[in-house]
């Protein structure tokens, strides 16, 4: 029981740290505005990450394309973590470090938003994708941990989860993504009478 309570307390404290961090709140708002503007202007959201962050990338894209809080039109989002033929072909032919970079080069257009997720901020495949996105004129958003590794200098907006523990960082990332999606949903597809 102690391990359960300890983890829940750490989780609560991490969320409270995010609530208390004005920079965190401002960054979530700025990301919401950036994604809203991109989608409103015909752009799309590209998401990526490895491991648990790949799951988060897919989850986020699904919320945009399907729905989050209510029925509305779909919003353009693609998770670059889901096409096993593309992932394995690039990994085999070019090396795993290029699995996202080549997809960004194939699918990214100026005005799109690239959401790169890495708890450490040091994943070569993620960093290369960010560099490719910047080169192509995409807006780069990073979700990372407290230190951010090499992501902050590559990003237009960098959201730092206030933790160094991977599970807690990931909890903050998906929570922040839900907030962003909810705000974008309301901005682009306001509910009647809202």
Structure write-up:
The longest helix has 23 residues, at 166-188. This protein is of the alpha/beta class and 194 residues long. Helix content is 55%, strand content 12%. A 5-stranded parallel sheet has the order 2-1-3-4-5, sandwiched between helices. The protein has one domain: Rossmann fold, CATH 3.40.50.10490. Strand 1, helix 3 and strand 2 form a beta-alpha-beta unit.
> Within the CATH hierarchy, at the fold level, what is the topology?
Rossmann fold
Distance between the termini: 44 Å
Instruction: Just give the CATH class.
Output: Alpha Beta
The overall average pLDDT, rounded, is: 97
Give the neighbour order of strands across the main sheet: 2-1-3-4-5
Under CATH, the homologous superfamily reads Glucose-6-phosphate isomerase like protein, domain 1
Q: DSSP strand (E) fraction?
A: 5-15%
Anisotropy-based shape: globular
């Amino acid at each position: 029981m102690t391990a359960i309570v300890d983890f829940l307390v750490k989780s609560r404290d991490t969320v409270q740290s995010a609530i208390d961090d004005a920079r965190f709140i401002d960054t979530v708002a700025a990301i919401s505005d950036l994604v809203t503007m991109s989608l409103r202007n015909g752009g799309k959201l590209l998401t990526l990450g490895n491991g648990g962050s790949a799951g988060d990338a897919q989850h986020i894209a699904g919320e945009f394309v399907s729905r989050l809080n209510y029925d509305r039109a779909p919003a353009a989002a693609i998770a670059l973590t889901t096409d096993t033929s593309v992932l394995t072909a690039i990994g085999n032919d070019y090396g795993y470090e290029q699995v996202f970079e080549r997809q960004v080069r194939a699918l990214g257009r100026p005005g799109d938003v690239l959401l790169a997720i890495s708890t450490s901020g040091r994943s070569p495949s993620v960093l290369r994708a960010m560099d490719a996105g910047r080169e192509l004129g995409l807006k780069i958003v990073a979700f990372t941990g407290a230190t951010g590794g090499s992501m902050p200098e590559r990003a237009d907006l960098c959201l730092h989860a206030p933790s160094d523990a991977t599970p807690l960082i990931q909890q903050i990332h998906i929570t922040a993504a839900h907030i962003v999606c909810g705000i974008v949903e309301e901005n682009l597809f306001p509910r009647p009478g809202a």
